[in-house]
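Write out this protein's structure.
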Amino acid sequence: MDTLNTGGLIRRSPVRHPRWRRAALALVVLLALGGLVQAVHIHHQDGQWALVPSVSPDRLTVDGRDYRRGDLDKQPTDWVRRGTTSGGGTIYTPAGFNGTPTVLWVRKGNKVWGYDLIGGP
């Protein structure tokens, strides 16, 4: 730090940070804010805190109804494609079922997860 002696008083010059430090700090703050926004979005959508959506999220919402993930399941014989999860898994419902299904399945590759309706039909 530079100091100036003016009649017995010592003055220190203000500390100046290089511009790259300010730019780096701004970049870090923006990245942290972006990560927070992404995590909140994924939590609202899938019910879990993550930066990347899961193929088989803990909670799945289909037609305004919430479903909770169970364990890995056997592949059902009669199922119909219903949609996709935010992480790229395929959602299936029982074939020939009208109304609100009480079970769903999510498939990705050779893995199948079962989902149960929360709150009843």
